[in-house]
């Protein structure tokens, strides 16, 4: 029988005590017989549990908004948005980052997702990766982090060493930091400039934080990236005017967006898109301001990509 070193045993005991205090890890004895329930009853219960997540997120909207304003300000001056987490939290960050180029035509280097254990950990668990504080620092150093960047640490427990170390290291380098967790008084929130603690309570399956905690994190990340992009002029109203038309569906969507923004006929929309190399924002400006493609490009450049500002400049 293999013995456990005394130091490891002590650390394991401390961790068990710590987890016992976290709501995300709490055991629900009333669900001890859930495996005996009909499928529909389990589904109804989980659905009811999920419905509470939006209320938990709503209670943290002021903190979320403050963090987003900070993110937008940094990115407006050329900074990057970096997500860092382990397991489900890391995968959610990578998912959000990967959606930004096709949705908002961002450079893949502008919004980055880091996961403990590297790319392999996206589909396969990497043992011990979440405990590697040195790996978090190394991953950020590989990005040559600057004071213009933002690092968002994501951890349901709020104690994951990789996420906490990433936030502490980023903050020491002068970057803006956000700590997103699902427990109160978390180490992650305490380490960050902006702490966001969305407390969703115990999970249906004890400790399975890919459930309500994961849903809460996804909702907050949706807000961070989407509202930041709105602030950066990546939309016109609620239209995705920076969408990258890289396939047939997106080309059809681009046509529809130009039509909705301008009210122009299909023929005029097609001409505008052709003249502007498929750029939605430029095409809208061409049609609404009655300018040619080179002028539209110049106006948008002067307006730092904000379509409304470019339209105002064209009308002046």
Automatic annotation (TrEMBL):
<comment type="pathway">
    <text>Amino-sugar metabolism; N-acetylmuramate degradation.</text>
</comment>
<feature type="active site" description="Proton donor">
    <location>
        <position position="99"/>
    </location>
</feature>
<keyword id="KW-0119">Carbohydrate metabolism</keyword>
<dbReference type="GO" id="GO:0016829">
    <property type="term" value="F:lyase activity"/>
</dbReference>
<comment type="subunit">
    <text>Homodimer.</text>
</comment>
<dbReference type="InterPro" id="IPR005488">
    <property type="entry name" value="Etherase_MurQ"/>
</dbReference>
<feature type="domain" description="SIS">
    <location>
        <begin position="71"/>
        <end position="234"/>
    </location>
</feature>
<comment type="similarity">
    <text>Belongs to the GCKR-like family. MurNAc-6-P etherase subfamily.</text>
</comment>
<comment type="function">
    <text>Specifically catalyzes the cleavage of the D-lactyl ether substituent of MurNAc 6-phosphate, producing GlcNAc 6-phosphate and D-lactate.</text>
</comment>
<keyword id="KW-0456">Lyase</keyword>
<dbReference type="InterPro" id="IPR001347">
    <property type="entry name" value="SIS_dom"/>
</dbReference>
<dbReference type="InterPro" id="IPR046348">
    <property type="entry name" value="SIS_dom_sf"/>
</dbReference>
<protein>
    <recommendedName>
        <fullName>N-acetylmuramic acid 6-phosphate etherase</fullName>
        <ecNumber>4.2.1.126</ecNumber>
    </recommendedName>
</protein>
<dbReference type="InterPro" id="IPR040190">
    <property type="entry name" value="MURQ/GCKR"/>
</dbReference>
<feature type="active site">
    <location>
        <position position="130"/>
    </location>
</feature>
<dbReference type="InterPro" id="IPR005486">
    <property type="entry name" value="Glucokinase_regulatory_CS"/>
</dbReference>
<dbReference type="Pfam" id="PF22645">
    <property type="entry name" value="GKRP_SIS_N"/>
</dbReference>
């Amino acid at each position: 029988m293999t013995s456990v070193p005394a130091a490891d045993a002590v650390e394991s005991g401390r961790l068990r005590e710590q987890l016992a205090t976290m709501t995300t890890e709490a055991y629900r004895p009333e669900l001890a017989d859930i495996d005996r329930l009909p499928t529909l009853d389990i589904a109804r219960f989980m659905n009811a549990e999920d419905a509470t997540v939006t209320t938990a997120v709503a209670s943290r909207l002021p903190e979320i908004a403050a963090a987003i304003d900070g993110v937008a300000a940094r990115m407006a001056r050329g900074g990057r948005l970096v997500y860092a987490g382990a397991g489900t939290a890391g995968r959610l960050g990578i998912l959000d980052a990967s959606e930004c180029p096709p949705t908002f035509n961002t450079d893949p280097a502008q919004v980055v997702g880091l996961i403990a254990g590297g790319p392999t950990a996206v589909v396969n668990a990497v043992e011990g990766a979440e405990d590697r504080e040195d790996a978090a620092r190394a991953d950020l150093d590989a990005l040559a982090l600057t004071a213009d960047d933002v690092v968002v640490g994501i951890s349901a427990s709020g104690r994951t060493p990789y996420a906490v170390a990433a936030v502490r290291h980023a903050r020491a380098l002068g970057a803006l930091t956000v700590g997103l967790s699902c427990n109160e008084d978390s180490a992650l929130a305490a380490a960050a400039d902006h702490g966001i603690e969305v407390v969703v309570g115990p999970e249906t399956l004890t400790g399975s934080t890919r459930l309500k905690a994961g849903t809460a994190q996804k909702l907050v990340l949706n807000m961070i990236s989407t509202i930041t992009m709105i602030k950066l002029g990546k939309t016109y109203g609620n239209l995705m005017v920076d969408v990258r038309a890289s396939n047939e569906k997106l080309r059809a969507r681009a046509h529809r967006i130009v039509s909705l923004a301008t009210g122009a006929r299909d023929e005029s929309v097609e001409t505008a898109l052709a003249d502007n190399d498929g750029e939605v924002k430029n095409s809208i400006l061409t049609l609404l301001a009655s300018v040619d493609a080179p002028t539209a490009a110049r106006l948008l450049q002067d307006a730092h990509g904000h379509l409304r500002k470019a339209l105002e400049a064209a009308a002046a």
